Amino acid sequence: MIFTEKSKRKGIILAGGTGTRLYPLTKSVSKQLMPVYDKPMIYYPLSTLMLAGITEFLVITTPDDSQNFRNLLGDGSDWGIKIEYAVQPSPDGLAQAFIIGEEFIGDAPVALILGDNMFFGENMSKDMLQATSDQTCGATIFGYHVNDPSAYGVVEFDASGNVLSLEEKPENPKSNYSVPGLYFYDNRVVEIAKNVKPSPRGELEITDINKVYLEEGSLKVQVLSRGTAWLDTGTHDTLLDAAHFIATIEKRQGLKVCCPEEIAFRLGLIDEDKLHALAEALRKNGYGKYLFNVLKEHANTPVDPEDFAPERFGRRAEDMLRMNLKNKAMKKKKQKLKESK
User: Fold this and answer.
1) Are 232 and 117 a contacting pair, CB within 8 Å?
2) Pairwise CA distance, residues 100 & 87, whole Å
């Protein structure tokens, strides 16, 4: 493994809910399994946490959708990670994820990401890696400027950038900074979640967890820059917007956004042989061809540190570079042994 012990954080992807805002699309399938251009929606939050250095995941689903997620993601071994599953019988609030995931979390710090949230931007993986690596206690959440924050948790700052208050879906927001569905916590979050009382709308609000950390002075809010995109794909319009966004980026750059196979390979979680096998199974479509191109580029192009710049793969670029150099050396050694025989 290329990650330090600080990255032993575990990740939870909350993929429950009824998805009623997307009916009739989601009457028979989870919204997190809906396509966003060329990938299932859940690939995006999964990739986000992978880029944060997390390799152990719990996917929380509805009882009806659990098997479909297992069919899609398996146990994660194809990508060099470990995926477990749990069921949320009813959507009783985001904070419930930590109660459901108590056994999975154990004594580790944890990150939670919502299954319908997508992130993209030059500083996003760097920010997350920093939050994951450097936070030994307390909580880190994010602030993102939006036009209408009333549909989200809202964070209020003073003139110096200090957090003054947190509100959940306020009618009269005190700022335009909403809190995206990505949260990093120390291990105390499980006990804090257990003590959260249902809100007037009957849910265990994650904002109430964040308020506990705020009141004790251990909540950090990182404001995402204007060059960062946060997409909430919970409605027909936002789902379409997200697909157009991903398509535009990929067609322009020729690079996939949140491709877990590529990320696993770039991070040294799987080797060339494994990536080739994954590409082979998809060779008849553009996704498989892209994976073959990743292999071709890796084999034929000298490794350049710029290929692993923080804006693409986070702050651990040097570690990833060393791992890829090691993989190449091992590949050449195996080839020479075959030739000598």
Assistant:
1) yes
2) 8
Read off the pTM: 0.85
Instruction: Say if residues 316 and 132 touch (Cβ distance below 8 Å).
Output: no
pLDDT tens per residue, range 152-199: 989 999 888 889 999 988 889 999 999 999 999 999 999 999 999 999
Q: Give the three-state DSSP class for 101.
A: coil
Using only C-alpha atoms, the chain has a radius of gyration, in whole angstroms, of: 20
In the DSSP assignment, the letter for residue 182 is: E
Domain locations in the chain as residue ranges: 5-246, 254-340
Helices 272-280, 286-300: axis angle to 10 degrees equals 150
DSSP H or E stretch at residue 81: none
Beta bridge partners of 184: 111, 140
Cβ atoms of residues 41 and 164 within 8 Å: no
Residues 204-260 pLDDT 10s: 999 999 999 999 999 999 889 888 999 988 889 999 999 999 999 999 999 999 999
Helix 124-134 vs helix 43-51: crossing angle, to nearest 10: 60
SS (H, E, C) 34-83: CEECCEECCHHHHHHHHHCCCCEEEEEECCCCHHHHHHHHCCCHHHCCEE
What's the pLDDT tens digit per position in 42-77? 999 999 999 988 999 999 999 999 999 999 999 999
Check if the beta carbon of residue 310 is closer than 8 Å to that of residue 126.
Answer: yes
Residue 317 · residue 305 · CB < 8 Å: yes
Which superfamily is assigned to 5-246 in CATH? Spore Coat Polysaccharide Biosynthesis Protein SpsA; Chain A (3.90.550.10)
Nearest Cα neighbor of 54 from 340, 260, 341 is 260
What percent of the chain stands above pLDDT 70?
A: 82
